[in-house]
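User: Working on a comparison across species. This one is beta-glucosidase from Methylomonas rosea. Can you predict its structure so I can line it up against the others?
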Amino acid sequence: MSAQETNDNVEAQVQALLAQMSLEEKVGQMTQIDFSVVSVVNGEVADNPIDQAKLEDAILNRHIGSILNTPTTPNNQTQPIEKWRRMTQAIREVAAKSRLKIPVLYGIDAIHGATYTENAVLFPQAISMAATFNPDLAFKEGAVTAREVKASGLDWNFMPVMDIGRQPLWPRLWETYGEDVHLAVTMGSAYIHGHQGEDFADADKAPTCLKHYVGYSYPLNGKDRTPAWIGERALREYFLPGFEAGVKAGSPTVMINSAEVDGIPGHVNHHYLNTILRDEMGFKGSTVSDWADISRLYTRDKLAASPREAVKMAVMAGVDMSMVPFDYSFYDLLLDLAKTGEVPMTRIDEAVTRILRVKYQSGLFDRREPDLAVAGNFVTEEAVAANRQAAREAIILAKNDQHILPLKKQASILVTGPTANLLSVMNGGWTITWQGAAEHLYPKDKPTLLQALQQKTSGKVTYVGGKNFSDEINIEQAVTQARQHDVVILALGEKTYTETEGNLESLHLDPVQLQLARAIFEIGKPVILVTFGGRPRIITEIANKAQAVVLGFLPGMEGGAALADILFGDTNPSGKLPISYPRDTNDIVMYDHKPIEAFESNQYRPLYPFGHGLSYTTFQTSDLRLNKDSIAMGENIDVTVKVKNTGALTGKETVMVYLHDVAASVSRPVKQLKAFKKVELKPGAEQTLQFSLTPQDMSFIGVDMKRIVEPGEFEVMVGSETARFQVAKP
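Assistant: Here's the predicted structure for beta-glucosidase from Methylomonas rosea:
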C-alpha cells in the first residue's frame, strides 16, 4: 500500500469512528490523566498498582483517551518491565470492553532512553548527545528508546526537546541540543527518524512529541516557567526552526510551552498554535498541554476568570488534549461548554480527529497485546555498545596542558569531589525518578567515575568524599592524601534536577566546592578537573589552575566507564561544546552573536567557545575551495575542504562549516554553523570533505518578517580559512 493509500485509509477509519462517537466519548479522548488517578495508594511499590474500579470508571464512564506517567505522582519511580507490561495490558483490556474499543494512548517521558523502566539503556542527555556532533548516534538513541519503550508496553514518548538552549541559567538547558540552530535541527531530526522509522506503527517504533512549542527555553530571568520576551524575527530565526524540522521529520504530536511569550501563555496563543504551526508549517498532528497548564490559565496566569473559561480559551486556541492531570475537571467543564455551544462541535471534532489519527498511525487499534517480547528487544548488546560509544563521544577535553592526559595506568591517583562516586550526577533529572536523585535505585552494575577508575588501573586509587552529593568532604584529609599521590582528579559539578526544582540564583559553583579546590591547588600537585552537570557552572578560577579540564555534562549510565576510558587513553576524546561556556555568570554571549556584541569594548570571550574540544592527536583543515565565486539567486554553492590527522594517534574530528552574510538589511550574526561532518582518521590520513550550502542556508528573516536571500557577499569559514562568494542580483 502506498503512503497516500495508507493515509486515505487512516482518514476513512477516523471519520467512520468519529461518526459513531457520542459527545462524552469525544471529550474523553481530549482528556489525559496521570496514572495516580487510577492507582492504588503507593502504587510505585505495589505489585498490582491499578485500582480496577478507578480504571474502569476512567475508561468506561469518562472515556479517557490518554494516561501518562508512573504510579504514583509525585513519587514517580522506575518500574520493572514485566510490571509495566501487566499495567499497560490491564489498561488495554478495559479499553477493549468499552463501547467503541478506542485504545488508550499511554505517554511517558523517555527522554534519554526508557527512563522509567528498570535497567533500561540510558543514553547521554540531549546536551551531551549534541556534544557528539554525531547524528548517527542520535538516530541509534531514538531507535533503542522506541524499542525499549514499546517492549515496556508503552505507546508514546514526550521527546525530543526542540527548544533552543540559549539561556544557561534555565534548569532544562540540558534537555536541549544546545545553542546552535543547525546542530539542534540535525540531532533532533536524526533522533525522530531513529525513533519513528518509516512507519511508527511498527512493533519496535513509536511516535515522538516535540517539546515545548515555543519559546519556553528562553525565560528572561532564567527561571523555569517564567516569561520570555521574543520578537517575531528572533522567534522565526532561532526558536521555530527546530519545531519546523520536527514536523518535517514526521513527529505527530507537539507539547505546548508551559510559560508565556510576550504576555501570551502558550496554551492560548492562537497565532502560534494555528497560523504558524498548522498553516505555515503544515502540522497535521495533535497538540497536548503540558502539566496542569490549562487550569493554570486561571490559577497562575490570571488570564481566565474561572476554570471553565480557562478550558474554553485553551481549546479554542488550538489545544487538542489536556494533561489535566489529577482529576476530571477538564472533562466535566468541556462537556458543559460543548453542550451550551460555547465550544462548537466543529472544534471538538477537529481535536478528536487529530487524536484518533495519531492512534491509528501508531498502530494502537491493532495492538491488543504488547508488541515486543522483552528478550531480544531490551538491553541488547548492540544497544549498550551504542550507548557506550555515545558517552565516549560526548565527553569534551577542554584543556590538556603539557599533555598530562592520558594518564599512565600505574599512576597513583587521589579522587575527590562531590560528583566522583555517584551515577545520578552523570544522568540528571528524568532518570529513575522525576528529579533523578534517588541514587539507591540506580543499577549496581554501572560504575561511577571512581569505580571505573579503580577497575582500569594497576596504580593506587584513593577516594576522599561522601556517599551523597551534599555530604561534607574532609578537606584536611583530601589535602593530606593529595600529597601522597601523583595526581588529583577533582570531580565537581551539580546535583540532579529538572524543571522548577532546578532554578538557581547563580551559575557559580557551591562555595564548598571552591574551598576544596583551592586547598588542593595549594599543595602543587597536578589536578585534572572533571565536571558533571546540566549547565555550565562557572569554573574559570579552577580551570585556569588545573592541568587538564574534562567537561562531562550528563553522559548517562556509561559515563563513568567512558570517562575512565578517556582519562587513561583507551578512547581518544572527540566531543565538542554545543554551547559557549561562559567565563563568568553575567558574561552570556552566544557564538553566533551580532557584530555589535563584539565591537569596541564588547567581546565574545567565553572560557571555551562553541565547537571547542581537544583530542590526543592533532588535526588540520586546509585547501578550502568553493565551486564558484558567484552564484545566481536560488543556486547552491559547493564547498570542499581537506582534513588531515597530523598527530600520532587515530582520532575523530568534527569539521564545521560556518557562513557569514557580509552586509544585509537586518543585522546578521558574525558566523553561523551551516554544515558539519565527523570523520575518523588514522595518523597521517587525509580526507576531502564535500558540503553543499543551499539558499535556505543563506537566508534570513527580512525586514517584512519573510525568509529571504539578499544579493551580496558571503564568507564561508572552516578552521582558519575563509572563502568568499557573491550572490548575484536577479
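For your comparison, note: The mean pLDDT is 97.

User: Helpful, thanks.
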